[in-house]
């Protein structure tokens, strides 16, 4: 199959239009709230070796070669490229349980500051466990609440965050849905910030991969979910919170993210792991036991690391060539990195073919000024094309003056002017000569002139 290129930075890919539905019986509803700006959470990059479609699979993906798992739905994604290397029912609707809190934390970090002080409401403290056992009116920082939310899966913290940054749980859920759609998670519908059971509260494995990948772009989020323990010093309850994600303790290279469980969702899990320059994100849903879902995740991640790697083909800012400018030559660069998910030990051998196109007029830095074809050296096939932009403000080369034509025109003008002047002088002398012939000296003038000569 031919290699393809997609631009994952411009917009997240939409999930499949038709869904293979298990137990949840509703489709995602459209949110009426505008999303918080999420563009910076979607990495801007050009990606090679990916098949275009509702789910961006790596070229040559074959799920049948992977280990068999018990979880009813799963996705393994290269977190740097967004390319899916494995999927089992990636767009089937499932209950997410507490992995919902990934989106809750994402919104809180986008809307608030870690030093914000939040007050626990009566509704927040009435939430069922897991919880931080706060009292109504208790004040805690957003930082402490986020650690409780993501490490201890605290439901009271989830409601407190929703009320502070959404005004109400219902409106915050609407904001969560708007954010999900902005990230490309188009089959997700959240009803609450905690993931407690509700027939309308559904998502998919692929949608949760998109949401988790975006959240992991936030440094504070990444730090929290990679924390094994955290001291909680509440008014009514003090404890050392231990991260419920056991993969942090058992899987080499694990860096987060979140677990979930309810009686209707069963076990759910999002986990990320990094080895060398490659990071994989695994999402698993609807598994009967915690031990089994961790085994499924371990098997999938092991297979991914044993068979795939992230290849960084070109960095952002790579100088691909030059365009002629007023002061010489100005460089043109790649505005975004070029990456690919490739079979382990078999990177792409890429040749660059430059097509520069200088702007006709002055242009600012970042203006498109050509493109770069990326060609597979071994096959000669074009893998994709990426834009090139100006690395600095541009001034065009001045248009050359047509000296020959200008000289000819100038010479003609000079000759014409000389002819006009010469003719004017001839006519003037002729007029003066004629006037001299007709003048007669009067007697009184003759005596006056004689007298004048005598005085000299």
TrEMBL record:
Pfam families for this protein: Peptidase_S11
Keyword terms of this UniProt record: Carboxypeptidase, Cell shape, Cell wall biogenesis/degradation, Hydrolase, Peptidoglycan synthesis, Protease, Signal
Signal sequence interval, chain numbering: 1-28
Keyword NADP belongs to the record: no
Active site: 98, 101, 153
Gene Ontology terms describing biological process: cell wall organization; peptidoglycan biosynthetic process; proteolysis; regulation of cell shape
Gene3D superfamilies per UniProt: DD-peptidase/beta-lactamase superfamily
GO MF annotation list: serine-type D-Ala-D-Ala carboxypeptidase activity
Peptidase S11 D-alanyl-D-alanine carboxypeptidase A N-terminal domain boundaries: 65-288
Binding-site residues for substrate, renumbered to this chain: 258
Family named by the database record: Belongs to the peptidase S11 family.
This protein's name: Peptidase S11 D-alanyl-D-alanine carboxypeptidase 1
Organism whose genome encodes this protein: Alicyclobacillus acidocaldarius (strain Tc-4-1)
């Amino acid at each position: 199959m031919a290699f393809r290129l997609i631009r994952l930075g411009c917009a997240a890919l939409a999930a499949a239009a038709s869904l293979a539905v298990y137990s949840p019986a509703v489709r995602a509803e459209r949110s009426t709230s505008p999303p918080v700006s999420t563009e910076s959470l979607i990495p801007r990059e050009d990606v090679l070796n990916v098949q275009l479609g509702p789910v961006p699979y790596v070229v040559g993906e074959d799920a049948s070669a992977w280990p068999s798992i018990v979880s009813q739905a799963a996705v393994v994604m290269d977190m740097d490229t967004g390319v899916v290397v494995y999927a089992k029912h990636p767009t089937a609707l499932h209950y997410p349980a507490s992995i919902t809190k990934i989106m809750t934390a994402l919104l809180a970090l986008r809307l608030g500051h870690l030093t914000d002080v939040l007050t626990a409401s009566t509704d927040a403290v009435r939430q069922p466990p897991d919880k931080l056992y706060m009292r109504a009116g208790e004040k805690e920082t957003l930082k402490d609440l986020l650690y409780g939310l993501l490490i201890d899966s605290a439901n009271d913290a989830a409601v407190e965050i929703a009320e502070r940054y959404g005004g109400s749980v219902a409106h915050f859920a609407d904001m969560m849905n708007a954010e999900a759609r902005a990230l490309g998670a188009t089959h997700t519908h959240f009803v609450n910030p905690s993931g407690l059971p509700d027939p309308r509260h559904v998502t998919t494995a692929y949608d949760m991969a998109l949401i988790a990948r975006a959240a992991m772009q936030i440094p504070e989020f990444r730090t929290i979910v990679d924390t094994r323990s955290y001291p909680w010093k509440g008014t009514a309850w003090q404890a050392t919170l231990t991260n419920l994600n056991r993969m942090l303790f058992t899987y080499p290279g694990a860096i987060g993210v979140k677990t979930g469980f309810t009686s209707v969702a069963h076990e759910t899990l999002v986990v990320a792991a990094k080895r060398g320059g490659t990071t994989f994100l695994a999402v698993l849903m609807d598994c009967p036991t915690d031990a089994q879902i961790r085994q499924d995740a371990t098997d999938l991640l092991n297979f991914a690391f044993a068979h795939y790697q992230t290849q960084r083909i070109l960095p952002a800012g790579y100088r691909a060539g030059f365009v002629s400018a007023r002061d010489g030559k100005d460089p043109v660069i790649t505005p975004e990195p070029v990456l690919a998910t490739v079979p382990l030990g078999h990177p792409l051998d890429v040749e660059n073919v430059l097509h520069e196109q200088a702007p006709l007029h002055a242009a600012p830095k970042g203006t498109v000024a050509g493109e770069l074809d990326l060609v597979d050296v071994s096959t000669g096939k074009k893998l994709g094309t990426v834009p090139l932009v100006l690395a600095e403000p541009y001034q065009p080369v001045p248009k050359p003056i047509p000296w020959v034509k200008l000289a000819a025109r100038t010479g003609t003008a000079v000759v014409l002017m000389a002819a006009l002047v010469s003719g004017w002088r001839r006519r003037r002398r002729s007029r003066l000569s004629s006037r001299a012939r007709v003048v007669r000296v009067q007697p009184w003038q003759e005596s006056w002139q004689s007298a004048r000569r005598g005085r000299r």
